[in-house]
Prior knowledge:
The complex is a heterodimer.
Chain A: E1 3-5, E2 10-14, E3 19-21, E4 24-26, E5 33-39, E6 46-52, E7 59-61, E8 64-69, E9 74-79, E10 88-98, E11 101-106, E12 110-115
Chain B: E1 4-7, E2 10-13, E3 18-25, E4 31-37, E5 44-50, E6 53-57, E7 64-70, E8 73-79, E9 87-94, E10 111-112, E11 116-120
Amino acid sequence: AQKVTQAQTEISVVEKEDVTLDCVYETRDTTYYLFWYKQPPSGELVFLIRRNSFDEQNEISGRYSWNFQKSTSSFNFTITASQVVDSAVYFCALSEALRGYSTLTFGKGTMLLVSP
Amino acid sequence: ETGVTQTPRHLVMGMTNKKSLKCEQHLGHNAMYWYKQSAKKPLELMFVYNFKEQTENNSVPSRFSPECPNSSHLFLHLHTLQPEDSALYLCASSQDTLSGGRGFLSGNTIYFGEGSWLTVV
Lengths: 116, 121
């Protein structure tokens, strides 16, 4: 069975601090995909990044960066110089290869509160 | 602006009412999904439609009835719901790779709508 664990329920930081959101996953598949989504108070899940299990190269997009380590089954997300607009719930998810379409197993999410 | 739109955004209904949630995707995808998000619980997959055919029903009670008339539209018909069904219902879509065959490599990005906040009173 697939499982995604986000151990941090809530994180509070002050604007301009760096913050790392942890994600640990379990899967028996040798090929899989990992995702991060952002959910602001409005409710929409906003796609941030997708990585496949063969590509362990870290990725940076503006203030966002992702550290994928297959050896520890982790896919951590760092926001540099956080801003109030980063306040949201962040979900890590794992995709199963199932019958030709994507299904996602989500973690419980980490609520990030960035105060001015 | 999201490519997946849901209506209504908010819905309050009594336990004896019949209502429907509507989802439309403008991304040209052929797989559509309903997810449920309750307080304090992880997002739960409810239904999957692939090329208009229902391919996954994740043990959802029959008071939730999905309908997919075409690859762009997905409905969730609600009937005699319970207060514990109050939740955020999220529609999503993705571009399927190829149909058929367990173990086929998948993992295409799923794009979500803004959700419909449902309150059952």
